[in-house]
Amino acid sequence: MNSNAQKIAVIIEKIILIAFAVFSLLNFLSFLTKYENRYDFAVFLSSMPVWILFIISASAVFLLFLLLFRKMVSRIVERKILSYGVIIIAVVLPRLLAIGIFRVTPLSDFKLYHDIASGLAKGEIVASGYISLFPHTFGYPAVLSLLYRIFGPHYLAGQLLNVLAGVGIAVLIYQTGSILFSREAGFSAALFWAVWPSQVLYCTLICTETLFTFLMLLNIRVFISIIRKEPLRKAAFAGLGLLCAYTNCIRPFGIILTASFILVLILDGLKHKGTLATKAVSCLILAAAYLVSASLFGMGLSGIIGRKTAGFPAGFNLLTGSNIKYAGTWNIEDSRILSDYTDNGSFDAQEVQNAVMDIAIRRYEAQGLENFRLFCMKYKVLWASDDDIINYMRAGLEENPEDSVLFSSIARYLRLICNVYYLMMTCLCIVSAIRLYRHEPGAPAYAFILFILGTAAAHLLLEVAGRYHYPTVSLLSMLAGAGSEAALDHLKHSRIKAGMKPSPQKP
């Protein structure tokens, strides 16, 4: 019985790793089919074979660069203070430069977050009807409002919050990568994320993604600590459920994170004799703590805004996600459908979400096999590129003509830099998936792989936008760090087999 359970667990883990490898490969191929003729830079890199050759060449040069500095990396990670110092500088410096050069004005969702936070800083509730429909829109502004109370409602305060959260993200990447793979891999992963072009530019926006990413990684870090230590495990899982629920208040994907932890615990219980019952209890505690905490947060928010909030606010996201005409992205047509239910101002938020969800379900049913084409379109929107930040910045710079002219002159090159870097990291993720398939990565690694895959699966049905893959970039950087170490080890062993002098051994 136990042997069969172990075999089932191993098979599931292999399937997860294969799915991630396919996911990474699809991202690469999606880019090639999406951007062949879209942007100006495609004029000189217009064909798929050229793009493939270009990315392979860029990746080779990148690996050579890593190989040359590998000894330096090994020496840096020997000293914790030095390694943290390098990571912090790598995060802070480029982000402060981006903020200083480009004065981006918040628009759309970003302006809404700013307005809600500004209202909260003055003790006022702004857009209570909207918050009742989408409760997660309150979490980030609530944190931002604390800074606005101190420094005033200035965009710069939100941008500096992004920088601060960015430091936390890089540190957590370093710590988590060091535990799961190696200190060198963790350090490389942190630097990969710190200088990731799109991640640097996103700090100019007043958006939820940076804070959510920090909390997501904190959840993963806590999860790793819990399963590695026996004392107070049950109480710790209750605390983790609370943290996941709070993370869900920033972006409604804390539930995917919770589900990933539960699945990892089940797989771990199947693999280790006599632990399944204990793991099952831990799963129940985690799930119960999450559900109770989420319910209490919802009740608390209802009291703050003076309106009942939607308990399951996915209806409108499902509606926009079902629209083939707009490839599952936000659109004015579906927004008007929502407005038809909310124009009187006295609506019940959950009833409205249920009503538009019914429309979405009927739309999906009517589309039949056309849904497959829709899923492909949405996958490309979400994963095929890493340059959506260029569009957001261009729109936000229109009120600053000098900055807008400067940005427009370099926008196509920034697109190129963002996408080439993204594809190089994707290639390293494929290498990492192969390495993990051959060598047991340990239970915690499956948690963030499942979160990536869960995010991809959820957005096949829900609304998509390019920036929605932002949180997964931190996880991809960890896998890229592991992939770079695997690639460099392979190069070192190849040199040894060829009779060349090997690189100095890692301490």
Index terms:
77% helix, 0% strand, globular, mainly alpha, 507 residues
Helix and strand content put the structural class at mainly alpha
Assembly state (oligomeric): single chain
What portion of the residues fall into strands of 2 or more residues?
Answer: under 5%
- Give the N-to-C terminal Cα separation: 43 Å
The secondary-structure element order is HHHHHHHHHHHHHHHHHHHHHH
Number of domains: 1
Shape: globular
Q: Number of helical segments?
A: 22
What is the alpha-carbon Rg in Å? 23 Å
The average pLDDT value, as a whole number, equals 85
Strands, total number: 0
The biggest sheet, with number of strands, parallel, antiparallel or mixed sense and barrel status, is: none
Please give the share of residues in helix: over 70%
Would you identify the regions where 5 or more consecutive residues have pLDDT less than 50? 36-46, 502-507
Task: Walk me through the structure.
The protein has 22 helices and no strands. By secondary structure, the chain is mainly α. Helix content is 77%, strand content 0%. The protein has one domain. The longest helix has 38 residues, at 401-438.
SSE layout and pairing:
Elements: H1 2-34, H2 48-68, H3 70-77, H4 80-101, H5 108-121, H6 128-133, H7 139-151, H8 155-180, H9 183-194, H10 197-202, H11 209-228, H12 233-248, H13 254-271, H14 276-305, H15 315-321, H16 332-342, H17 349-367, H18 370-383, H19 388-396, H20 401-438, H21 443-461, H22 470-497
Helix pairs in contact: 1-13, 1-20, 1-21, 2-20, 3-9, 4-8, 4-9, 5-7, 8-9, 8-11, 8-22, 9-22, 11-12, 11-22, 12-13, 12-14, 13-14, 13-21, 15-17, 18-21, 20-22
